[in-house]
Specification:
2 copies of one chain form a homodimer.
Chain A lengths: L10 H11 L2 H6 L4 E2 L10 E2 L20 H6 L3 H24 L35 H16 L10 E5 L13 E2 L3 H8 L1 H8 L4 E4 L3 E2 L2 E2 L4 H9 L5 E4 L3 H7 L7 H10 L13 H6 L5 H17 L20 H14 L1 E5 L12 E5 L7 H4 L12 H8 L3 E5 L19 H9 L3 E7 L27 H12 L4 E6 L12 E4 L7 H9 L13 E2 L17 H4 L4 E3 L10 E9 L2 E8 L5 E11 L9 E10 L4 E7 L7 E2 L5 E2 L4 E7 L12 E6 L1
Parallel strand pairs in A: 3-5, 4-6, 5-8, 10-11, 10-12, 12-13, 13-14
Antiparallel strand pairs in A: 1-2, 6-7, 9-14, 15-16, 17-18, 18-21, 19-20, 19-24, 22-23, 24-25
Helix pairs in contact in A: 1-12, 4-5, 4-13, 5-7, 9-10, 13-18, 15-18, 16-17
Chain lengths: 687, 687
């Protein structure tokens, strides 16, 4: 038996043995994301590029979960882990099906390029929706959960996760190929690298380099960043973002041609090239820019991952996962559960939950009311059933529903030959003829997302402001003139200020295949809303630091309380919870939380810590959270481990230590922020 | 009181009085489709352009019925009349709402630019879907029914119908602005003008001129065609197709500039100009190309229509139609009924209806499976609920449904970076994992439709052949390899040859908002299919006459039996009907029809007539039809009036007369065509 087929050896030993059998040309070819087969060694072609950010993506039919920013709003990393399990399960089922068909194309493999653990430092970033929000701890907890779910705990990886985009990456999209993010040592350690370190140490199999430079070095060819990975014991494969290596000469000016770019990346630890630069690796070898050892080393890294996935094995425990698991009832139920738990109730004057007995007619209005795109978010799969907001309400409500699209998502009219605002009279009529209006506004992935995907007249994927498009602002004002109660539902991947009073406001995010059903359940009080904001909602973009400024100063809840519309951690329910008896011992916080209202609900107990050290961020920082279900009147005692790292702070040199003995610990169902909510518990801890 | 407000006067008298009060400039301005207000006379702005081909269209939310070709497949003009009533009802409701909002924009008025009674003479024509098929009689019956429904029978027109495109118009789309259709006198009288004459005589309020020329004259400025309208007693308004008057100088070479084009059109009876040519009417007046009288005469025609619509009245019987009638339950039920009655079962080896008790898993595959666009057809409104084929099956079937898009509608791959056929492995896996496959193929309005709307890499709106796009042909072959029974569902507005054996084949057309529900009801045997083809399905386009050849020779069932895949009038049910005892007296045919099968079904009794005159078309011609519901075992006697005109034939000079005394009368539930079906009754009549 060939040594590389010997399943008793370690993955790396087998990979080394395999690479030993390969010619240097074969090795180089296997560092392309679209690796050709090596028939001599019975090595099938393999395409490293697959996506599974919130459900298996771009690969046809798959369960489509709420976008990641919404998953973060659940404040429930156990649920995120289950999402990861489903993604891996469906990836295996589709891999099995594709393989038996002889299909080794893009989006068919087992190397999924998620999670995205970049910090959503600026609300304008179009790809912020892919992240778990603005907080390093929340991001890391969810990132680890996703990796656990994707990779499983078997001897063979179920799927290989890949954390991205290493590192610091967070817009602007239209500059990303040339941008040099200048980041302080403190911000790097405290904010930008935190989740990467946590997730890599938790065993993420892959790391993807970012497009941008970080303090001068290209992220895909960075000595500094590679050193970090080594420190963290990273043992997997490193892949460039797609066509990012080409940027080294085309946009970053770090090299002068493709051959040099390939060499610079390979020399600095980029094993797999998404793009076409590594077709030049043999030229780089000829020119002496890389050695055969460089190529073989990268190839060993890559082959190790494939071995861990069982791709070289006769059989794996996953070969019998049938195609029918894709979009199974169980998977779809989980997608619904995520949508239910991620929507955030931001305003409610008491109109919600709706009293169905007093409603004959509901108007459902707005460009996102019957939009499948508004459920999807970017990097999505194709659901086998979409339930739009309109459809969810139609299915749930026994009375009459009047629908009007109201306006285009961002254009000033629906018909080219018409006058501006050509659906406003319809929207007004629908509102006027109804007892209450559900007004579905926001963005979708055609205008909020990634450069290239979303380049249109409206934007480059990033938002220019936190306002709704003008067409929608006019729609809101028109509908309000009808004089009926208005419940605004905002689908977006980021902070929006709707700039208008309304009777209730629900931040629905991009809520996945069953978003409309979850919304209807919430509107009619079948369940209580329970999501919490994983990002700060600001009043205005005008008061934010410049988008290109990567300093954390005045950014996120840890560093600012100015310009706040709704704070990080905020979210109402249909009930009322109170915390009492906060205690702390042996690294564990305990607190009792009671549902003192009359509605069964989930709540999220949030623990924040403020070090009294001068290096600490100015405001208390999330260090623990737990989602808990509470019947009306029910009280539960919650215990939450506080990681030791929560007590560290980071000085200007980037050194992380416990610099202080004194801390204040906070517990509440939201961020401890006096101007919002009903107060919080706090206690002083001395270590 | 101003005379034009005197409701005791005739509409034309009031219009004349109004026009007498208008300056010549005001008159000219009111001949533009987007007429400005005349505040001095309290005349609101009015936009003549509104659409309602198969539901109020382009005006936001409205009940969306099956496309017209499908409505024709019902062979049920009473139902078409009810569709017209709903369209008018919704038009009034939306007109009332828009008017009270001060909105007099495009697609908000009461002049609906339908029905389209052009003859679908060539299956390649993209706009053939808008028509009632290839038969003049069937077209006329449905056209009259639509007009009755739209206009109502009150003193005030509920809405104003407009028959189009006068005349002969039927492709090619990409030549329409310059094309001169050469038509014989016989074909004009026998085929192309037949339905126009019938519908105009039945009281259609408007006529729209076509883009093309007819034997040298532009249809929008044709002395010949105007003379026909006069002969028929036409008393309404004539409107140009949109920007067709501009074509007179830009493409037809009939005039040398805009002013001359406006003059030529006005002089030849074109009252209203859709487009911008009539801004030149005053210049034409100055240049002596038209007279004040010409302008005032056209304006009287136009104002007469507005008076008939009650637009100048203090109140009308329709002012209280509330907005809530739009998409009412009753209207939606009618849309479903049309979808149920229009789908045509073309093949069935016994697999249909599906035996649910023996099915655990169904694969629903194909680019049209979950496509809302595939329900719409062109000139459509926005439904408040779409039920796609996939959704209909998911809702109806209690077992598992596996969905795969399978391929792009016409592109060779779904993802730009992927290899050709990148969803085939998924489609195969879904099929392989199922007990039966519902394979949803066909076209949609992005590739079948009107020049301008559908200009893309695939087509100009017309079909190049009768084949499915290559991507779909590959999909069918791939899915069949899975070895499971395959039921093909084809959504298209015209004849398609799927070129593949399958267990069953349903022609679903563009089936409107509830198409998926209707399909599921048929698949699972809740109802029997009962639609009949209103067009011949040909085997191949290669054997058709040239697309630009307007001779009827070798076109449609009346003139050819070559190259026939499925004949006009064809369509299976889940039962079996037999006709007996055909009789004829006093212009009435009577026949007994019995459901000799074991399934309740609708059937369509079809009466054809063959004159023994040498001028008669070579094959029997439809002269009567009646849809009838039959329980299993039930027999009904059907009486059908045969119009006297059915006994006429048309000689080469275009003279229509009863040239023969001898006729053969046929009765069956399909066209009398030996190679298809179970036979027919016939009898000889001597007049």
């Amino acid at each position: 038996m060939k040594k590389y087929l010997d399943e008793s050896l370690s993955a790396r030993e087998r990979a080394k043995a395999l690479v030993n059998e390969m010619t240097i040309e074969e090795c180089a070819s296997r560092l392309r994301y679209d690796s050709p087969s090596v028939e001599r060694l019975r090595l099938d072609a393999y395409n490293w590029w697959n996506e599974g950010l919130h459900g298996l993506a771009r690969a046809g039919t798959a369960t489509m979960f709420s976008q990641c920013i919404a998953l973060a709003a659940m404040f429930d990393s156990e649920l995120v882990e289950r999402v990861g399990e489903v993604i891996a399960q469906e990836a295996r089922a589709k891999y099995n099906a594709a393989k038996s068909f002889g299909d080794f194309d893009i989006y068919k493999g087992l190397t999924l390029w998620n999670p995205n653990v970049n910090i959503f430092r600026d609300p304008r970033w179009g790809r912020g929706q892919e992240t778990y929000g603005e907080d390093p701890f929340l991001t890391a907890e969810n990132g680890k959960a996703m990796v656990r779910g994707l990779q499983g705990d078997g001897e063979v990886l179920k799927a290989a996760a890949c954390v991205k985009h290493f590192a610091v990456h967070s817009g602007p999209e239209n500059l990303r190929h040339e941008f040099d993010a200048k980041v302080s040592a403190k911000d790097l350690e405290e904010t930008y690298l935190y989740a990467f370190e946590e997730v890599v140490k938790a065993g993420a199999e892959g790391v993807m380099g970012a497009y941008n430079r970080v303090n001068g070095e290209a992220a895909c060819a960075s000595e500094f960043l590679q050193k970090k990975l080594t420190e963290w014991g990273f043992d997997g494969y490193f892949v460039s973002d797609c066509w990012a290596v080409r940027d080294l000469h085309e946009h970053h000016g770090l090299t002068s041609n493709s051959v040099e770019s390939a060499a610079l990346a390979l020399k600095n630890g980029c094993d797999i090239n998404c793009g076409c630069s590594y077709v030049n690796l043999l030229a780089a070898l000829e020119q002496g820019l890389v050695s055969e050892d460089d190529i073989r080393k990268a190839c060993v890294n890559a082959m190790t991952t494939l071995v861990k996935l069982g791709i070289l094995d006769e059989e794996t425990p996953y070969d019998n996962i049938p195609y029918s698991v894709v979009c199974s009832d169980e998977h779809k139920a989980l997608a619904l559960e995520c949508a239910e738990k991620s929507m955030v109730l931001l305003e409610n004057n008491g109109i919600l939950p709706l009293d169905e007995s007093r409603l004959k007619t509901i108007a459902v209005v707005g460009p996102n009311a019957d939009s499948r795109t508004a459920l999807e978010g970017n990097y999505c799969g194709r659901a086998d059933r979409y339930v739009t907001f309109l459809e969810g309400i139609e299915d749930r409500f026994s009375g009459r529903v009047l629908y009007s699209e109201g306006c285009h998502l961002y254009k000033d009219r629906m018909s080219a030959l018409a006058m501006v605002g050509d659906r406003l009279s319809e929207a007004y009529a629908a509102a006027k003829s109804s007892d209450v209006v559900i007004l579905c506004v926001g963005l979708d992935s055609t205008i909020e997302g990634e450069e290239g995907d979303t380049g249109n007249e409206f934007s480059s994927g990033d938002k220019e402001s936190l306002r709704l498009p003008e067409s929608q602002r006019k729609l809101i004002e028109t509908v309000k003139k009808a004089g009926k109660p208005v419940i605004v539902v905002c689908a977006s991947g980021s902070s929006i200020n709707i700039e208008s009073d309304c009777d209730a406001l629900i931040q629905a995010w991009y809520s996945g295949e069953s978003g409309g059903r979850a919304l209807a359940e919430i509107l009619f009080g079948d369940i209580s809303p329970s999501g919490k904001l994983p990002v700060t909602f600001y009043k205005s973009a005008d008061k934010l630091p410049d988008f290109t400024d990567y300093s954390m100063k005045n950014r996120t809840y840890r560093y600012t309380r100015e310009n706040i519309l709704y704070p990080f951690g905020y979210g109402l329910t249909y009930s009322k919870a109170q915390c009492r008896e906060l205690e702390f011992s042996d690294g564990e916080a305990s607190v009792k939380v009671c549902n003192v209202g009359s509605f069964d609900t989930d709540e999220v107990v949030q623990i924040y810590l403020k070090s009294h050290d001068k290096n600490a961020p100015p405001y208390p920082t999330l260090c623990g959270f737990k989602r808990v279900s509470l019947k009306a009147g029910e009280e539960k005692e919650i215990k939450i481990d506080i990681p030791k790292k929560a007590f560290t702070t980071v000085d200007e040199s980037g050194r992380r230590e416990i610099f202080s003995e004194k801390f204040t610990l906070y517990a509440s169902t939201q961020q401890p922020f006096e101007e919002f909510g009903d107060g919080f518990l706090k206690m002083t801890i001395t270590m």
